[in-house]
Design a protein that fits this description.
The chain has about 450 residues and is α/β, with parallel strands linked by helices. The protein has helices at about 15-30, 80-90, 95-115, 125-140, 165-170, 180-195, 210-215, 235-240, 245-260, 280-285, 300-305, 315-320, 350-355, 360-380, 385-390, 395-405, 415-420, 430-450; strands at about 5-10, 35-40, 50-55, 120, 145-150, 155-160, 220-225, 265-270, 290-295, 310, 325-330, 340-345, 380. It folds into two domains: about 5-165 and about 395-435, 3-Layer(aba) Sandwich (Rossmann fold); about 175-380, Glycogen Phosphorylase B (Rossmann fold, 3-Layer(aba) Sandwich), CATH 3.40.50. The protein has 18 helices and 13 strands. It has a seven-stranded mixed β-sheet. Strands 9-8-7-10-11-12 form a six-stranded parallel β-sheet, sandwiched between helices. Strand 1 (about 5-10), helix 1 (about 15-30) and strand 2 (about 35-40) form a beta-alpha-beta unit. Helix 2 (about 80-90) packs antiparallel against helix 4 and helix 6 (about 180-195) packs across helix 14 (about 360-380). The longest helix has 20 residues, at about 430-450. It is globular.
């Protein structure tokens, strides 16, 4: 039997052309070192790729499973996984217990057969990922985490977790190898020229002046508040003060009014926000805070024109610092405890007033430049076109981090069992078969009538 060494990488998104080029380059470098890449992707690539892959199902409600599970899973308590699913997606009438059990069966088959020398897990906080993590840890397989980086078009590999749970987030500034700001300056120049952030932005047909559009007086400060998703790990794990983004916004507006600040708050909608949009406008009205909820202005214009920027823990805060705007962080992130931003520590924290007056911001900005150079040099791997010519970390850096964590003694086979289990489709009921046949017949009749 020809057993091989595999690195298993489980990622969300990851299938744009630039990302697929990155993964193919990673596969090529790994092969040269006697290791194969196997990926679990949320979406199937739209073009052929050189590495092996299959898909995963994020939501338990979307998992298809047999009515009777033949394999024994009764000795495992699935309560925590079901609770996590309810946190993400609310309650459901579907049989999530059976779905979770089937996920466990699938992932156990995958890890047993593939026997990867390293598993790299994206996000790691959905029920399915927690189940996979249990299987991996029970097997004793080395585990790392991967997440979209703090800067657009980058990946962040870490041995401990994501965002505020990463190793660098836990370190103080004085404990980091700070060595100049050249890498930051190179990336800053690229970023400001390319104007590309993590999420698609609306296009402007004409130049817009936010101050003119909303009649903001010269002596009024323009504050950008970046809306975030409630249904997100950054909210569940790293938002210690506010249950929802709307509650964070309400507290923020009340605090501004309480301190008597003369300002206009621009609440910028996240492109994937699906909550009640009207609540943000209602908060502005009820608190008496001047402002507007907007979705038709690109983030770059919002950051560029704003005097101050605030969010719970959006990666946009990193970009706002590139625009050299004082940042109020109301939750936790990689920037924690480093005096790089104005970080909220409690509801009565005086930091809001310091942020509004930009006290000590020049020193913060200089420290931020040095920290970001360190982050760019030691943590992030970029995948945008031209990254190698800029001298920033690319595939070789990423692979080196992988290989530092592999267990070279582990070898396995292609996971045919997972392929079979993952492709299971529940047979149609009699009513569903009749409906399908009827639809097909009506379609033929319509064609004949034409």
């Amino acid at each position: 039997m020809n057993m091989k060494s595999y690195v298993l990488i489980y990622v969300y998104n990851g299938v744009s052309d630039e990302e697929l080029n990155f993964w193919e380059a990673v596969h090529k470098v790994l092969l040269a070192r006697g290791v194969e890449l196997y990926m679990l992707l949320q979406i199937r690539p739209k073009r052929p790729v050189t590495f092996s892959f299959n898909t995963f199902t994020e939501r338990l409600d979307d998992v298809e499973f047999p009515k009777s599970l033949r394999r024994h899973v009764k000795d495992i308590d699935f309560t925590a996984y079901l609770e996590r699913e309810a946190t993400w997606y609310g309650v459901s009438e579907k049989d999530r217990l059976k779905a979770a059990q089937y996920q466990y069966i699938k992932y156990k088959a995958l890890i047993n057969e593939l026997n990867p020398c390293l598993v790299v897990l994206g996000n790691g906080q959905h029920a399915g990922e927690l189940i996979l993590k249990k299987v991996v840890k029970d097997k004793g397989t080395p585990l790392m985490y991967i997440e979209r980086g703090s800067l657009p078009n980058s990946w962040h590999l870490d041995a401990y977790g994501m965002t505020a749970g990463t190793e660098i987030a836990r370190k103080r500034l004085e404990d980091l190898p700070l060595d100049g700001i050249q890498s930051y300056l190179k990336y800053r120049s690229y970023y400001l020229n390319r104007r590309e952030t993590w999420w698609p932005q609306p296009e402007l047909n004409n130049a817009v002046s936010i101050r003119e559009k909303f009649q903001i007086a010269e002596d009024e400060k323009l504050i950008l508040f970046a809306n975030q998703l409630d249904n997100d790990t950054s909210n569940f794990l790293y938002n210690p003060f506010f249950e929802t983004n709307a509650k964070a916004f309400e507290w923020f507006c009340k605090r501004l009014k309480q301190e008597g600040h003369k300002c206009f708050v621009l609440a910028k909608k996240h492109p994937h926000y699906r909550g009640d949009e009207f609540v943000f406008a209602q908060i502005l009205e009820h608190t008496g805070q001047r402002g507007a909820w907007v979705e038709d202005i690109p983030l770059f214009e919002c950051m560029n024109e704003s005097d101050l920027v605030c969010a719970v823990n959006s990666t946009m805060l990193f970009e706002a610092m590139i625009y050299e705007k004082p940042v109020l962080q109301m939750g936790d992130s990689i920037l924690n405890e480093k005096a790089l931003v104005y970080q909220l520590k409690g509801y009565d924290d005086t930091i809001v007033d310091d942020w509004y007056k930009a006290k000590g911001f020049d020193a913060m900005l200089e420290s931020y430049k040095a920290f970001m150079s360190c982050l760019i040099d030691t943590e992030l791997a970029f995948y945008f076109k031209g990254v190698e010519a800029m001298g920033l970390n690319y595939v070789d850096f990423f692979v080196a981090k992988l290989l530092n964590s592999v267990d070279g003694e582990r070898k396995g086979d292609y996971p045919s069992a997972y392929d079979k289990l993952n492709s299971y489709k529940r047979p149609l009921s009699m009513a569903q078969r009749v409906k399908k046949k009827t639809k097909k017949l009506l379609s033929k009749i319509n064609v004949l009538n034409k």
